[in-house]
Automatic annotation (TrEMBL):
InterPro entries: DEAD/DEAH_box_helicase_dom (IPR011545), Helicase_ATP-bd (IPR014001), Helicase_C-like (IPR001650), P-loop_NTPase (IPR027417), RNA-DNA_Helicase (IPR050699), SKI2-like (IPR016438), Ski2/MTR4_C (IPR012961), Ski2_N (IPR040801). Residues 295-451 form the Helicase ATP-binding domain. The keyword Glycoprotein does not apply. Residues 498-523 are annotated as: Disordered. It is found in: Cytoplasm. One of its GO terms (cellular component) is Ski complex. It catalyses: ATP + H2O = ADP + phosphate + H(+). Residues 526-733 form the Helicase C-terminal domain. This is Helicase SKI2W. Coiled coil: none annotated. One of its GO terms (molecular function) is RNA helicase activity. Keywords: ATP-binding, Cytoplasm, Helicase, Hydrolase, Nucleotide-binding, RNA-binding. Its main location: cytoplasm.
Length: 1235
């Protein structure tokens, strides 16, 4: 049968091809050869495959512009078939249209999409919201109801109900009055109810008005008693549905975080009991309240943020989201921060759901499965490349979402959350963080949906924290409880721990003759004693297995080697371990089975000891993990990465130290890091408490403050690590419908401004309305229509003068002549915010653009803080209009006044006078002024010396005139050339203002005060509007400068043209996902074309190497490695020079170029065994494997770039490189995907 169908299809194709050829060659009007794609038209007609390709081009899959739709009558029978036109989106290409209804992309890379595709439109962007805000019309009747109601199913499906509801007979007909849909006022309606309405979840219900109009609607039914009986059922059912939905909404978590709703998890959730019989997945155990809350939220179709301690059971939430997808026949994606965790979750979910796939950089297993496991970077690539899987996606689960705090990769989580389409629902799983509501609110705002926050601080297994000071047989049991399971710090126990160390130190000093060597870090001999005695103590207390966290790969290996003398397994366990170990490494080839690391770990595991860090071969790490899960490994030495998502709890957790080196400095662990690792202690259902031990290997116990800070300190908030990357820029610039500013505005770093944006927009609109409503008074003197200068023009000129004068004083401050004038006792004119007019003051001192002055004031002086910026600005304008630009208010001094001192900026200076008070003690005057600043001294009389000074000051002030003022450029010289032009402009403006003042009649208007108030109010509104517009402008974004710098770099290199369009070079860079600039330049400069496959592998390994040798790498001149070094180094330096010229940071965090493994990779690509290449370096095995595995991903990217360039030779070469490196132990299949 299959052969007949195949023969029939081949015959049909042959007939069509022959018909096309006959038409094109016989009838010129049907010759379409020159209208098809260039690549095909360039083939000559005699070519055998020309007509086949033309056939494929003409008959390629493309939806018809119309479709047939049956029309049903009231009884459900088909009356006729009508032809309907498809919408434009359904006919659009995936390379231009972002709609979910566009034509499916049928390329060869449908899983990850294609760089020629544009992404699907992200949820929450303005274009999507613009459709929502169109509902501001007066009534819903003006909106096309067919968008929201399915009239064909209206007989048995009530809008807002989750399941079909059949009421009476389907064939019944009747006429009933239906209330007109209520009006929607967007000022008062809940935005989430509105979103629910648009999404078809439920109608919006508002209180009925007094006058309700009704319209008659014909509904197919029969007037029977059964219909009357069901009317009450409809009302009661509707009422119950509304009550349930009202209880779902609940109170908001905070007035500030409107998009986050905190769910109470202190007790069981009542709603859970109702949905329990119909759950998508049943569990053999009772769910905790926080799990119940998450399940209820997901059943309602709401996104959730779950924050709970390690091993609390967050995976249950992920499993339920996947179960919902299985029930709904949709897809789920589970993302993890690391590849190892993806492999583990693949195995775990495969046992539960069977139909599970895994997508990583180098493998794709079961990509057609409904549940896909991948890293977050893979999902980001799928979103940018418009993968077809996104259409079918219902839930995305982000595990370990607190990884967003990672400086190197945290930005990826933000990009993915922003780019997810609106139909995708989100589950975020995180450790306990203080700002869970704030983060959920940010996600809710960018996706325009409410996020349920499920937070629990309760541990399923409480922890007890101990200090261990034992070092020998006598002190073996020196374990001191410092924090109990209630979280209370035990100071008495801490004191005993200190005493135990002091006692031992005293004994050692006596043996050494009383010398105190002070603090000494542990050495190998000391560490061996500590660990041997610790392990014996834990075994005697039945507190094994234990995970020992050590913050160094080398020290992990060293500490494990110290326990080679220990034996923690029985004979039967040893037999099982050897059998399992041999079975796992059986897949390795040749000498790989005899590698030193393999033999070392086999011996360790046989004794019940394991090692787990990035330097261990991946397959050996998985062996250790599986043995640990089975209980054969009793003591596991691991680095921090073991605590990242791996669900492998232990009875105890041991900290080798509470300090670690983070690449920059040696520092204490943060509380969050400590909790993440300590949370591995305690196995649910097995242990009553988890045991956490902190080793004290030195001669002193850690300080109380440090221990308290680490164990009981506040955990770090989720913080944005968003940054503008070249990959993000290129992927967004090629999409016409998206703007880079939209992405930046929705980043978490802008969450604060995002929350206040709506309020700012409302304020801006209000201020604009107020400005438009302001009309000038009917005064031809102050507000002339044409000709003469009015009050508004005069004030504008005055403001310009004030601004120029303020900047001028900052310039003049650098002049020596001005510094000589600013001496104690100098009389200066200043304008202070708390005074309406400028006043004379006595200068006491000057320093760093700040002046300290004193002046007499009334004892009922208003507080400076009560004078806001607007009032101070108005005061200064009024005083200049009243007293002139050089005038000030004369002060009548009497002995009942007091003096006050003020620190003012240099730009508050109005003028410097020629007058000084010579006989004056500045320090005494200042002390008395400071004394009057305290209210209890305000009634004291002035001292005799101060009275004399103020009397002199009053006389000078009375006689001050314009002739006493010192003008720059006239009364003192300007020595700096750069200041001459500024002073000249100011003097010119001053003359112009004096002339305008003399001929401006507006300042003599009898209503000048009220008119001036109008002008100032209008100026304030204009300034306020300008400030609000600046805050809402794209340039105000925190990352705006970084964005423009990176864009400038891309333009300089030719990746983007002057119109911000991605060039051909940029299209090539879109295919590269790591070191995109350097790799693209190497490809387009021809650095790879003349190289052999092994040389290409060595050259590209410089972008993936994460190992830094302790010795400087030097290559023999003119050797192959020296040539490769020069190729990479010269290209890198050229890019760096361009970045340096433009003052741009070039490479991302962690993207350093390293040449340390170039020779190793070269030998591996030439076919050498792994044992051979290990002799060429001191790098650990796991680091080498990671370098080569990442190299495989780069090779794939370069191969895709070669396809874009149209270089088949390079494409074939990269295939050869991939084949050369993808072999043996480096690319051994994961045990989780095969066991």
């Amino acid at each position: 049968m299959a052969e007949e169908e195949s023969l029939e299809q081949l015959s049909e194709r042959t007939f069509r091809t022959s018909a096309i050829q006959l038409l094109c060659e016989s009838l010129p009007e049907y010759n379409v050869r020159h209208t098809i794609k260039k690549g095909i038209s360039e083939l000559s007609p005699p070519a055998e495959n020309f007509w086949d390709k033309l056939h494929d081009e003409l008959f390629s899959l493309c939806p018809a512009t119309t479709f047939l739709k049956p029309v049903l009558n009231s009884s459900g029978k088909v009356e006729e078939i009508v032809e309907c036109r498809r919408c434009g989106d359904e006919l659009a290409s995936s390379s231009t249209n972002m709609s979910l209804q566009r034509i499916p992309f049928l390329g060869s890379t449908t899983i990850k999409g294609s760089s020629s595709n544009v992404p699907f439109f992200p949820g929450g962007f303005d274009e999507e919201l613009s459709r929502l805000w169109t509902l501001t019309a007066t009534t819903l009747s003006s909106v096309d109801e067919e968008q929201y109601l399915n009239f064909e199913n209206l007989l048995h499906h009530v809008p807002g109900f989750e399941h079909d509801t059949y009421l009476g007979s389907k064939t019944e007909t009747t006429e009933t009055n239906v209330k007109k849909p209520p009006e929607i006022n967007l000022e008062s309606v809940d935005i989430f109810d509105l979103l629910d309405y648009v999404g078809g979840a439920a109608p919006i219900f508002t209180p009925p008005s007094k006058e309700e109009t009704t319209v008659a609607v014909k509904v197919p039914t029969q007037t029977t008693d059964a219909t009357q009986e069901t009317s009450e059922d409809i009302d009661s059912l509707l009422e119950n549905q509304l009550k349930e939905r009202q209880t779902i909404v609940g109170p908001k978590d905070s007035k500030e975080f409107h998009y986050a709703r905190r769910i109470d998890t202190s007790a069981d959730i009542p709603e859970y009991k109702e949905i329990f019989p119909h759950m998508a997945k049943q569990y053999p155990f009772a769910l905790d309240p926080f799990q119940q809350a998450a399940v209820c939220s997901m059943e309602r179709g709401e996104s959730v943020f779950v924050a709970a301690h390690t091993s609390a059971g967050k995976t249950v939430v992920a499993e339920y989201a996947i179960s919902l997808c299985k029930l709904h026949k949709t897809r789920a994606i589970y993302t993890s921060p690391i590849k190892a965790l993806s492999n583990q979750k693949f195995r775990d979910f495969k046992l539960i759901f069977e139909e599970v796939g895994l997508i990583t950089g180098d493998i794709q297993l079961f990509p057609e499965a409904f549940c896909l496991i991948m890293t977050t970077e893979i999902l980001r690539s799928m979103l940018y490349n418009g993968s077809e899987i996104i259409r079918e996606l219902e839930w995305v689960i982000f595990d370990e979402v607190h990884y967003i705090n990672d400086a190197e990769r945290g930005h990826v989580w933000e990009e993915v959350l922003i780019m997810l389409p609106a139909h995708v629902k989100i589950v975020m799983l995180s450790a306990t963080v203080p700002n869970a509501a704030e983060f959920a609110d940010w996600v809710g705002r960018i996706k325009n949906r409410r996020i349920d926050v499920v937070y629990t601080a309760k541990r399923p297994v409480p922890l007890e924290h101990h200090l261990y000071t034992g070092q020998d047989g006598k002190t073996r049991h020196n374990m001191f409880l410092v924090v109990d399971k209630e979280g209370q710090f035990q100071k008495g126990s801490y004191a005993k721990a200190r005493e135990s160390k002091e006692f031992k130190k005293t004994g050692q000093n006596a043996a050494r003759g009383g010398k105190n060597p002070g603090f000494q870090p542990g050495n190998n001999r000391n560490d061996q004693n500590v660990y041997i005695n610790l392990v014996e103590h834990l075994r005697s207390k039945d507190q094994l297995p234990a995970v020992c966290f050590v913050f160094s790969r080398r020290r992990c290996d060293d500490n494990a080697q110290l326990l080679l003398s220990a034996d923690l397994t029985t004979a039967l366990e040893k037999n099982h371990i050897k059998h399992f170990f041999s079975q796992c490494i059986q897949r390795l080839k040749g000498t790989d089975k005899e590698l030193p690391q393999v033999m070392f770990l086999k011996e360790l595991c046989t004794r019940g000891v394991g090692v787990h860090h990035s330097g261990i071969l991946p397959i050996l790490k998985e062996v250790v993990e599986l043995l640990f899960q089975k209980g054969y490994v009793k003591v596991l030495f691991a680095t921090e990465t073991f605590a990242m998502g791996v669900n492998m709890p232990a009875r105890s957790v041991v900290f080798d130290s509470l300090q670690k080196h983070d690449g920059t400095e040696l520092r204490l662990l943060t509380a969050g890091e400590y909790v993440q690792m300590a949370g591995r202690a305690g196995r649910r259902g097995l242990d009553a408490t988890g045991n956490v031990v902190v080793l004290q290997k030195g001669q002193c116990v850690m300080d109380f403050e440090d221990i308290h800070k680490v164990i009981l300190g506040k955990q770090a908030n989720l913080e944005s690590k968003f940054r503008v990357t070249y990959t993000m820029l290129l992927n967004l610039l090629r999409v016409e419908q998206l703007k880079i500013e939209d992405m930046l505005q929705r980043s978490y770093v802008e969450s604060g401004s995002l929350r206040g944006a709506l309020k700012l927009k409302q304020t801006l609109e209000l201020q604009r309305q107020l400005l438009e409503a302001m009309h000038p008074p009917t005064c031809t003197v102050c507000f002339p229509e044409l000709g003469d200068m009015g009050l508004q023009s005069y004030i504008d000129l005055l403001i310009t003068y004030i601004e120029r004068q303020n900047s001028l004083w900052n310039v003049l401050y650098t002049e020596d002549a001005v510094n000589k004038l600013l001496i104690p006792g100098r009389i200066v004119i200043v304008h202070l915010p708390c005074f309406a007019e400028p006043r004379a003051a006595i200068l006491l001192s000057e320093k760093a653009n700040m002046l300290k002055v004193v002046l007499p004031v009334a004892k009922n002086l208003p507080d400076d803080a009560k004078c806001d910026q607007q009032q101070a600005f108005g005061n200064r304008i009024r005083s200049f209009v009243t007293h002139g630009i050089d005038g000030h208010l004369k002060w009548n001094f009497d002995a009942s006044q007091m003096i006050m001192s003020y620190n003012i900026a240099i730009d508050s200076l109005v003028a410097i006078t020629r007058q000084t008070i010579k006989k004056m003690n500045a320090a005494d005057l200042l002390n008395e002024a400071l004394r009057y600043a305290q209210p209890r001294f305000r009634n004291n009389k002035l001292s005799e010396d101060t009275e004399k000074v103020l009397t002199t000051f009053a006389k000078i002030d009375e006689t001050l005139s314009n002739e006493d003022l010192l003008l720059a450029g006239k009364d003192f010289k300007i020595t700096r050339l750069e200041n001459h032009e500024e002073v000249s402009r100011w003097l010119s403006l001053r003359e112009h203002l004096l002339e305008a003042t003399s001929r401006n009649s507006a300042i003599h208007c009898v209503h000048i005060e009220s008119h001036l108030g109008f002008v100032l109010e209008r100026l304030y509104l204009v300034a306020l509007i300008r400030d609000l517009e600046a805050k809402l402008a794209p340039d105000s974004l925190a990352l705006s400068k970084e964005y423009h710098d990176r864009l400038k770099m891309l333009k300089t290199l030719g990746y983007v043209d002057e119109h911000d369009l991605v060039t051909f070079k940029g299209r090539v860079a879109c295919e590269i996902h790591h070191q995109e600039l350097l790799v693209t330049e190497l490809v387009l400069d021809g650095k790879l074309h003349k190289r052999k496959p092994a040389e290409v592998a060595a050259l590209l390994s410089t972008t993936t190497c994460q190992f830094k040798s302790q010795e400087e790498i030097r290559f023999t001149p003119n050797s192959i490695f020296d040539q490769l070094y020069q190729d990479v180094f010269s290209t890198e330096q050229r890019i760096k020079n361009i970045a340096r010229e433009n003052k741009i940071q070039l490479f991302e965090i962690g993207d350093e170029i390293r040449f340390d493994l170039m020779e190793v990779v070269y030998l591996w690509a030439q076919g050498e065994s792994f044992s051979t290449i290990m002799q060429k370096t001191d790098c650990q095995e796991g680091i080498i494997v990671r370098c080569i595995q990442r190299l495989g991903e780069v090779c794939k990217d370069v191969r895709n770039a070669a396809r874009i360039v149209g270089d088949p030779a390079l494409f074939e070469k990269m295939e050869q490189v991939s084949s050369a490196i993808k072999r043996d132990i480096v690319f051994a299949a994961s045990l989780y995907t095969s066991v």
